Amino acid sequence: MAMNVSRVDVWAGTMSDKPGALAKKLTKLREGKANLRFVLARRSRPGRGVLFVSPLKSSAAKKAGLKKSPKLAGVRVMGKDRAGLGAKIVGALAEAGLNLRGLSTHVLAGKFTLYLALDSAAEANKAVKAMKAM
Predict the structure, then answer these.
(1) Strand partners, 106
(2) Cis ω on the peptide bond leading into residue 55 (within 30° of 0)?
(3) Are 67 and 11 in contact (CB under 8 A)?
(4) Hey, what domains does the chain have and what are their CATH numbers?
(5) pLDDT-derived band at 52, boundaries 50, 70, 90
């Protein structure tokens, strides 16, 4: 099965949980010439939100108040979509003894992109190896 599997840095930061907060962050990133492939924004608690993005250069990150996350390691997987592939991928990760922090995926025009969040670089490397062995 042909999949493109690679490690990615994930940048994170907090923001207010109010209208326009995400727009302000993304505007700062645009001004810093960021070309994002992954954006995840959510409420972390009442009044506060969190933003995760990838890829990013440190100059753009600084403008938006984001830092490379020391608490998670990212993996990006891309390939041709097919029924049951997600279950096969997470099954291979489980067999490798990996516990995911998070997973986000989407499919467009028959191709998928999946992002994994793991607790350490060592776990992310182990995930890359497990998926390349599929």
Answers:
(1) 113
(2) yes
(3) yes
(4) 3-7+71-132 (3.30.70.260), 11-68 (3.30.70.260)
(5) very high
The confidence score (pLDDT) of residue 1 equals: 64
State residue 119's pLDDT score. Answer: 95
Output the DSSP codes for 31-79: HTT---SEEEEEEEETTEEEEEEES--HHHHHHHT-EE-SS-EEEEEEE
Residues whose CB falls within 8 Å of the CB of residue 41, separated by 6 or more in sequence, listed in order: 15, 22, 25, 49, 50, 51, 52
Give me the amino acid identity at 27.
T
Res 69: pLDDT: 86
CA distance 87 to 77: 14
Q: What is the mean pLDDT of the chain?
A: 93
